[in-house]
Amino acid sequence: MISKTEESQLNRLENQVDNGGGGAWEYLCLVRKLKVRRSEKVLKHGLSILNDAKQRSALGPEEWTLYEQLALAAMDCHCPDVAKDCIKVLQKKFPESKRVGRLEGMLLEAKGSWAEAEKAYSSLLEDNPLDQVIHKRRVAMAKAQGNVSGAIEWLNKYLEIFMADHDAWRELAEIYVSLQMYKQAAFCYEELILSQPTVPLFHLAYADVLYTLSGLENLQTAKKYYASTIDLTGGRNTRALLGICLCTSAIAQLSKGRNKEDKESPELQSLAATALEKDYKQRASDKLSLLTSALRSLKI
Amino acid sequence: MGLGFMIGVFGVLILSHAAYSTIQYRGLLKIMEEEFSGPPMNVVLELLLGFFFCIWAALTVPGNFLSIHPESEENRIVSLSANLDFMIFNHRAKVFPLEIDMKLKH
Questions:
Q1: Does the CB of A148 have a partner CB in chain B at under 8 Å?
Q2: CATH assignment of A100-162?
Q3: Does residue B36 form part of some domain?
């Protein structure tokens, strides 16, 4: 979960390091802490630190974490030689380490030799059958080979044992959405919201899935979750504001004939529309006319 | 920071002077064998003054307060971290080789 200050700090450090201003080690630490995937930059700046003997000795025991980070970034950028060298260095230092064994398995995965990677992971799992990361790598391997149903099966088995792992729930939700199995995806997002209720992006994704499922109750619940996203982000999430407008007009269309007790007050939609117009005027004033025409067509 | 710190030290000195005056006043009352009802007015004023100086220094010296609202401009969550446990390497970067030849040199 990256907050606005952390994002601006990351961008600032990135600009600074890219333009030769130093601070590469802080940048790498921040990337590691925030768990973002900036593999090219990590590779470039990590190599510049490790190839310089003076900077390398200045790191002390943190050197090995940097080797690990660099190996992963190299695999991601398709430089298997760099990754192999890093893993060799780590192996020399930590001979019987499971973490290094995992890196080797990931290198086999990156090279595309799926069967050998599977063998490596199974042997690691024999020694330690409850290693969470290896289980997750097996799921990732199934996904990479295109075997999405196999990935879902593995992931469900994993979640039966480790029910509190919200990364896995998130991955499962995304897989279900990609397969258009929206009811199951809604269940996964509900688990995520239960475990982390203050992250607005999960509320937003859940509302999106409910809006896609459609149907009167789903639309009403989706509207509530768009509203809670707006609450949690202080009104700065454009997608949630648009979601409220769309939900209200869809509900109005669906319940046109029914004439039930009219508890849908139009205030929320007009407030959301006003907030959207203000936001567009401030940030993209040339697109304001598009927005007003779209909103007008929604207010039927 | 220097000014706030000096004012804080000054406030502590005023408080300790007020304490010393009160002890002296009590000693005087013991000699005159009267009841000790409370410190005299000027000591009370000195106490209030020292209190305000110390509070002001305590609030200004440590620096700016951070926002605690989760929806404030600094604290709001803008993106989720990439799910690195499920990272796959089977993506399009294979056809975009890096321009510089990267090697680990040692």
A1: no
A2: 1.25.40
A3: yes
